[in-house]
Amino acid sequence: MAVYVEKRGSDYYLVRLEKDKNIPNVYVHSNGVTKPYKNYSDLKDIVTEFPGMMTSNNSTKEELISILKKEDHFYEITSQRKDPKNIEKTVITVYEVMNGQKRIVEEYNDIYEVMASPYKEAIMIN
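and the corresponding structure tokens:
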């Protein structure tokens, strides 16, 4: 499951939690290719390298949570909590990124709507 994304320059660092696993995997998406970044044995090490991961969880500002490359299109997926203590009040926005410009493609009122959308693989990763 998508947990957090941090953009550094033109690279995206993706934190993904697999089912039945306590420590997330971290990948880097660079030049159109996603590959493993580092193997971590402790969650503390991930949080140290990506401190924004902890603050984004309780933030009310728009936070990047995933990316998706589908056919010839590239998307950024963000979430914004209207109430930081209530995950139910979260808006998920899908942006298409083209030539450095972003445009809103879809907005969803909760994660369940995204799960029924063409962008679900950005959240649930096999």
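(Above: one complete record from the training split.) The longest strand covers residues 73-81.
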